[in-house]
Amino acid sequence: MVLKVFFPSCCSSADSGILIGRWISEQNSAVILAVVHFPFIPVQVKQYLGEVQRVTKVSVSVLGSWSNSKQEKEESLSEFLEDLGTIFCHEPWIQISKEGDSKFWSCSTLQKPSKNPQEEEIILVYYDQRKVMLSHLHPPLDTAGQRAEDASKLSAIFDTVARSQVLFMTDRYDEGPIKLTHWQSDGVEASIIVELMKQASVPACMLLTFLLSLLSGICRSRVLKFWPLSFLWSKLSTCEQLGHRLQHLQVISSNKKAQNQNQLMRKANIFVSLLIDVALGILLMSWLYRKNRIGHLADTLIPVADHVAEELQDLLQWLMGAPAGLKMNRALDQVLGRFFLYHIHLWISYIHLLSPFIEMILWYVGLSACLGLTVALCILSDIIALLTFHIYCFYVYGARLYCLKIYGLSSLWRLFRGKKWNVLRQRVDSCSYDLDQLFIGTLLFTILLFLLPTTALYYLVFTLLRLLVVIVQGLIHLLVDLIDSLPLYSLILRLCRSYRLAAGVKFRVLEQQDGKPLRLLMQINPLSYGGVVQTYRLPTYSCYPKDSWASLCKKLFLGELIYPWKHKGEKQN
């Protein structure tokens, strides 16, 4: 038989006394939780252990004796430690002693005499009580009725330490009749400020919850479901981000206690993400309002818009000639070029009409940075969408015209082969056409085929411009999603206190010598940084199109519209 004794490393320098802990008979293991020092009264120790067992539901008992031979070893003390086995009846009675400055320990057991005595091999396993307590490698504490009693799992050790938290919560200035040594032997010093904050957090959370519920009720009211407001709410990324942050605030201000470690980490990650987001937003706002940067930005915006419009006019003039030596259909080329030039003229007039109010708009927009950097970035994305609205219109016109010709050519090509598209069955069926239908189809196919290069060139140019805008907006939304979803609190814990995010344990051999117990050190294996991000990553409420390259090329070839980003639950057309 192999006897495993889990001994807390914080008790290695404790004075002599008795070992209290839990005996796990299925594993033939003893989990030492603390050392009770001399002098003590056995009746008081039994009463104390009974109270701990009643509160924690852990069968805590006296498992053996501990002897620290830093002082001169007295024979009376050793005899007294052996006699304690008759007072605190436990089988087997564990005796651990530290021999002066020697690195080797002696560990033995006292058992009742039997007919077939068996020699037991003892393995002494050191563990860091604080790390085991905070690593959360044990089953959830709320499932105390379904405790893990499986002998093949090491989680029983962690479960024992975690549920014995009451044993470690000792006031620093409480001089009781029993003196213990454990990972919090110095006691917990109460702080008046912390206690006042705990008392004030409950009404503050209730007030914040009421305000947030009132605000969310206004957002869900029927007024916002009418067409103009509902359309703006679904298309503007700023509204989506504000709704996203509103849900985060509701999660943080909830007075419900977290049920497990994942919920607690999610709340902490959301709180740290909000805190950093608002701090970065305030820094951005302070930078914008220094040295009249808002005015300089407004003065720069109009010339930039005019320069972009002039470049588009030069591009259209180039397309209306002979671009790259290509011979285009002159009539269609002139019509499309003048049509787009007229839209640019309207856009320049629109920009100059808004120019007196640009600085005032930017001044009020800059104040929104106090809500967070992500809100400011979403407003920047919406401003880019508004300033490039004419490019979007050009892209939509070109895509619709190109898509009409592509589908017209594909339909007429099926006509030549004696096929047609069955709308009801959603398939291609055979069909017989008369001579007039084939003649008209041939004329239309020829016209569309010769007009296709001119349309395709305009579509290609405006698609590239549209993709440039989409890439810029995509980078902005990627940064927003990174700030929203990155588990910053978990990453800080992994960097500073890696044992709080544990993935398992490992054992390291400390010493192995014949006639001495095998000494092992149990260490916590932390999660990798990639595992932390994957496990505790926060959900995002906006996503960039995740189409494959083949799907994107198919959309470009067929002239289907490509949107910069879509909201959760919204399908792309």
UniProtKB/TrEMBL annotation:
Keyword flag Transmembrane helix: yes
Gene Ontology BP annotations: GPI anchor biosynthetic process
Pfam families named among the record's database cross-references: Gpi1
Molecular function via GO: transferase activity
Entries under InterPro entries matching the protein: PigQ/GPI1 (IPR007720)
Keywords: Membrane, Transferase, Transmembrane, Transmembrane helix
GO cellular component: endoplasmic reticulum; membrane
Sequence intervals crossing the membrane: 200-219, 270-289, 335-354, 361-388, 394-416, 437-461, 467-492
Source taxon at top rank: Eukaryota
Keyword Cell membrane listed: no
Protein name: PIGQ acetylglucosaminyltransferase
Source species: Machaerirhynchus nigripectus
Source lineage: Eukaryota, Metazoa, Chordata, Craniata, Vertebrata
